[in-house]
Design goal:
Distance between the termini of chain A: 51 Å
Helix content of chain A: 40-55%
Number of domains of chain A: 2
Radius of gyration of chain A: 21 Å
Strand content of chain A: 15-25%
CATH architecture of the largest domain in chain A: Alpha-Beta Barrel
Largest interface: A-B, 38 and 38 residues
Oligomer: homodimer
CATH topology of the largest domain in chain A: TIM Barrel
Chain lengths: 384, 384
């Protein structure tokens, strides 16, 4: 069950609605990341208040701990983590190539060692479907081979070709798993091809030949390449995106990246930056771009962290108090900054939707990006 | 402003109500500890949900960081930490004797070095009143000299005598500070005297000679002495407590300690154990006393942490999920277990009040203590 409806368009940007077994998601949408079945430090009710309509969890982490069979027996990830709204699980592809110690990549799959205890495991396309089926997320991802950031054309091409072969195996396995009942889970293919726009476009064409998918994801970007290279890939894909496929840019990103990508037709985003930055004492704010809450000038600042924000943190506490919590190494600081940063991203996506619907997206996004980046530059200097 | 009304009595135990500038507190009451101006990891709304009517903050910590003048300028501790209900600050006495490096104890006061940066500071009775006046809590504590746990009679006597002399200086200073307006803060004296019942009783008599106080605290207990010694001190004081003084047993305690002390006429409690144990993966539960949430048998346990509890954690998540969070080192585990343990203590005080009011306290408390201790023993064996 996966239905996508476009509700408005403005250039390549568009708004839409994805209907899933556990609810609907207004797009463009930012998905908070709950790596180990929890958005770090944040409860379900806080995610509701933040306005998160869908969250992401990591197949690799949950497979290793607590194990997908344990999760299946607890009612899947929805039951296990008490999250009633839509969920997306990634394929583990990115993690086995970034976190785990790789032993061997074969046509069959990837042998790797757990980053937790060094134990040896094999992920195949079939295995990854089994695991994601046990986890039971609304949207699941095909198993992909991620070529390293600056991969040569030959390496990127091989990874992209294998990802396409694996896609067919994923599809077959998911069909076997779901013959018993209605297909409540929807799998999305992932395009690889590193920063080579022609490979990416070739991947999109091949994916379209293989089947009529409900949507598509772009993987292997935002892994250290120049931002311009990411935009070139999206611009190459833009003319050939099927209009009715929602497009998910995996692992992206920072606030300005999200706006740039929405302008290039992207509908779904996820990133650990809101919670990771929050844990480091960094927050995004409307006026100043990005601020370090430890900054000495916050010492006696009684204003909310972001006077333009409506999150719990900004409704309740002052900059002076937040700075004190960060300085004192208090747990509450991590929570409050994570809540703010998550709300900042979720609300930014909502504001982009409003601008698209009202036909003002081009002007709004240009102005917003200029202000955010100017603020960040000022802050960068202030922090030095 | 401090008014205490007794609402029922059952032997030495009693229920009452303390009316303070920021609200009322039903006693016996457990006060969560917000050492640095935050109950570790917990928001204001969570404290409301837990049912906390008053919380405690530490003068020593807030004086060092962020500084009491900064807090005063932010509207005092109530404004700074956005806490609208009653607050109590301790005197810093316990901390300078336990956390800081002591340089010199003189009649004038105590020279110590900060545990944060080694800087040198002097706490005198007057200085401690100035600081607590700036922090602005509803209840403040007199500056006391804490004799070490196993102090000899001579050492304990000297500390208790000095505490009494300092009490008079505290009272004078507070009077000077509040001539300008109505006395919104109420200072309580602290009885010292280590585990010597006669010294404690002597301290109580001297405190009564010095003035007519609104209440009294017992300090320097629960610092490693045998529990029986603590109960002997309370039993020595019992015949001479002024009936209309609420009695605060500082730093106590664990659930069973609180019930034992209520039976001996104590009205107010504070302890860091609920949040500290929570951060260590330990929880109190009705049936089993104390459990380690990492226990293997919780792996597939879909029940709430404590089926008898009404806290957010028990209403929302399963033991299996909490165990996963603890195993995975997730921040959310600390929060959820702290919330449960705090609610356990606040609710236990409320249950004791109900039992006192209904005249069933003697039977209820005996039964409750037997069950809690039997559970803890079973668990102790299960954990081995």
């Amino acid at each position: 069950m996966f239905a996508y409806t476009i509700t408005s368009e403005a250039g390549a940007a568009r708004t839409g609605r994805i209907t899933l077994p556990h609810g609907t998601v207004e797009t463009p949408a930012f998905m908070p990341v709950g790596t180990q079945g929890t958005v770090k430090g944040i409860t379900r009710e806080e995610l509701f208040d933040i306005g998160a309509e869908i969250i992401l969890a990591n197949t690799y982490h949950l497979y290793l701990r607590p194990g997908h069979e344990l999760v299946r027996e607890r009612g899947g990830l929805h039951g296990f983590m008490s999250w009633p709204r839509p969920l997306l699980t990634d394929s583990g592809g990115f993690q086995v190539f970034s976190l785990a110690a790789i032993n061997r990549i074969e046509e069959e799959g990837v042998w790797f060692r757990s980053h937790i205890d060094g134990s040896r495991h094999l992920f195949t396309p079939e295995r990854v479907m089994d695991i994601q089926h046990a986890l039971g997320a609304d949207i699941i991802m095909a198993f992909d081979e991620c070529a390293p950031g600056g991969a040569s054309r030959a390496v990127a091409m091989a990874a992209h070709e294998r990802t396409l072969r694996w896609l067919e195996r994923c599809r077959r396995r998911l069909a076997e798993l779901t013959t018993a009942g209605p297909a409540v889970q929807t799998m999305l293919p992932i395009l690889q091809g590193s920063t080579h726009p022609d490979l990416r476009l070739g991947a999109l064409r091949r994916v379209r030949e293989i089947g009529d998918w409900p949507g598509v994801a772009v993987g292997g970007l935002s892994v250290g390449e120049a931002k311009a290279d990411m935009w070139k890939v999206l611009e190459a894909l833009q003319p050939e995106w099927p209009r009715d496929w929602p497009r998910y840019l995996m692992g992206v990103g920072y606030p300005d990246d999200m706006i740039e990508a929405i302008a290039r037709g992207i509908d779904l985003f996820d990133c650990v930056a809101p919670t990771r930055n929050g844990r480091n004492g960094t927050a995004w704010v409307e006026e100043d771009g990005q601020v370090n809450v430890k900054a000495a000038r916050f010492r006696t600042d009684d204003r909310p962290l972001d006077p333009a924000c409506d999150c719990y943190t900004c409704r309740t506490y002052s900059r002076a108090y937040l700075r004190h919590l960060v300085q004192a190494g208090e747990l509450l600081a991590l929570r409050l900054l994570s809540i703010h940063n998550l709300r900042f991203m979720v609300r930014l996506a909502a504001r982009a939707r409003d601008a698209i619907r009202s036909g003002t997206f081009a002007g709004w996004s240009t102005e917003w990006l200029a202000r955010f980046r100017a603020g960040r530059q000022r802050e960068g200097r202030a922090d030095e």
